[in-house]
Here is the input.
Amino acid sequence: MSFDKDTPAPRIAFIGGGNMATALIGGLVHSGRTPAEILVVEPFEAQRGKLLQATGVAALPAAEARLAAVATVVWAVKPQMFAEAVAPCAPFIGGALQVSVMAGIRSDTLVAASGSVRVVRAMPNTPALIGKGIAGLYARPEVDAAARAEVEALFAPTGESLWVAQEAQLDAVTALSGSGPAYVFYFIEAMMLAGQQMGLDAEQARRLAQSTFAGAAALAQQSPLPPAELRAQVTSKGGTTFAAISSLDDSAVKAAFVKALHAARDRAEELGRA
Here is the structure.
């Protein structure tokens, strides 16, 4: 892609053009940003093609001086690729707001590598790809209210967002919502397996399990009642639900699940120290 003097200067840059970047870029385009206002650096040709097809944005194969014009840089590479990705970008991005969707890369590392003290870390989750995600956000003290608003607008097309006051809380966000979709899929798998064992076919079990999760989640969001009370309403003593919940309690499933989230949080902390 070539640029001439009449091409508008890009306002935001994405380093990495994978699935999460594509979701965010698609949201920007849908909200009125033109492809010319968005600069993307993506070294893999196949991914550049997918991004162009999905959003109309043509990505560059490598960093170049036009990065110096952007006000915001979004880091959307795999954490293990960050050191390699940031080196050619660093000379151009010291004045920009840095927004990272990379798990485990602490803000101090981003400051040292980019030269900018204005850093926001985000932990989105995969439902962002269909506009149903939620992202935990943390901003260093140097990030002002206007920049926070820009970050909220960036993530708005992908779902909800919430701010945490301390960077360490992002490890809990990672454990709860960042990894959370996998837990839901895990339980759907188990319900589907049980359904088939009890005589339903695979498609029937899938539809019942997925719709039950979707409906229960929607009810929990819309109801003023806490989840424990909603559960109690469908758990008549001596009934079928009571039998199932009692079996789960006998197997200490809730305690095991809580322990699993702590394990995810602990691993997030370990990755941040690496």
Summary: Confidence is low (pLDDT under 50) at residues 1-5. The radius of gyration is 22 Å. The chain has two domains: 12-170, 180-273. The first strand starts at residue 12 and ends at 15.
